[in-house]
Structure formats: structure tokens, C-alpha cells
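Students often ask why inverse folding is considered easier than folding. One informal answer: many sequences map to the same fold, so there is more than one right answer. In these notes we will look at a single instance of the problem. The structure comes first.
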């Protein structure tokens, strides 16, 4: 550890021990001497292994540390207790949250249940329209998801058609 100028501590010792088992010394057996780069490679390997051994919640980020949800906050509370258990993203997103006017126009043409299915599909709550409809609590997710899919395609096609009509025709040569 002194030769590699690494900090002490149990995690660093474990990283050095693991790195020493590796093939950093292969050049010694093949050529009979260690090149200058061998110790640098060993040190880099030790740093990599040490990083892998450090738990995620002890690593640093640009803005501080990542904390485990089990991190104690005092009075028997942890971060897990502060996380909202049933936050529904779909209820918090409204049609006015989008800057693209085409999306807002389409969402305004849908009723509340259809809008929830579209948002569930868009935010990955369901991989298919049927799954998105099931997430929103539709009684018949297959039929309702398919109906919303067809309606959104029809509305998008109508928007494209209207936009094409508004554009001036290209001049004829």
C-alpha cells in the first residue's frame, strides 16, 4: 500500500488484495522484469476495485452524496418514510404542462379517462395501449386502449392534414 501511495482502510486493503490476484504481473513471468507501467496499471486496477466496493450510498456526486432509503433521520424515521407511497404522476400532469401546442390541442380533444391513458402510455406506465388503459383502471382495458390508440392516431392525422393545408404551395418553376 505504501509503494502504491494509496490510503489505508479496510476497503482499500481488500481492493489491493483483489488487484494483486489479477494478471498485472504477467510481464514479469514473460520477460523477467516488470515494466514501469505495471505499477501504474496495478494502481488503476486497485482504484477501480475500490470504487466497486464502495456502497452506492457512500459515493459522492456533484451535489453531495447519494443516500440509501434506509438512512436514519432521527426519531426512528428514515428516508423511506418520507417517500410518498402512492404518488400518481398521471394525476399531477395536466394538458397545460406541455409547450408543444399540437400536444395540448390533442389532449384537450380527449376526455379525462382517454387523456389518462395517453399520459400513462407516454410516461411508460404501460408498454402497450392495453397496459396503459389497465393502469388507469379501465374496466375493459383491451377495448378502451385500442379505442384511445385509434382516436389519437386520427387526431394526429387531422392535425397533419390541417398543417399541410395552412402551408403555402411551393412555387411552380
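Output (designed amino acids):
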Amino acid at each position: 500500500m505504501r509503494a502504491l501511495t494509496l490510503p489505508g482502510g479496510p476497503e482499500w486493503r481488500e481492493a489491493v488484495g483483489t488487484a494483486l490476484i489479477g494478471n498485472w504481473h504477467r510481464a514479469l513471468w514473460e520477460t523477467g522484469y516488470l515494466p514501469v507501467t505495471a505499477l501504474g496499471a496495478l494502481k488503476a486496477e486497485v482504484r477501480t476495485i475500490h470504487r466497486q466496493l464502495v456502497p452506492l450510498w457512500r459515493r459522492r456526486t456533484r451535489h453531495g452524496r447519494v443516500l440509501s432509503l434506509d438512512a436514519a433521520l432521527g426519531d426512528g424515521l428514515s428516508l423511506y418514510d418520507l417517500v410518498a407511497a402512492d404518488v400518481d404522476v398521471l394525476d399531477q400532469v395536466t394538458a397545460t404542462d406541455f409547450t408543444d401546442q399540437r400536444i395540448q390541442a390533442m389532449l384537450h380533444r380527449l376526455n379525462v379517462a382517454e387523456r389518462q391513458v395517453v399520459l400513462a402510455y407516454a410516461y411508460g406506465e404501460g408498454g402497450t395501449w392495453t397496459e396503459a388503459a389497465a393502469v388507469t383502471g379501465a374496466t375493459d382495458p383491451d377495448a378502451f386502449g385500442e379505442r384511445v390508440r385509434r382516436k389519437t392516431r386520427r387526431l394526429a392525422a387531422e392535425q397533419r392534414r390541417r398543417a399541410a393545408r395552412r402551408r403555402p404551395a411551393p412555387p411552380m418553376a
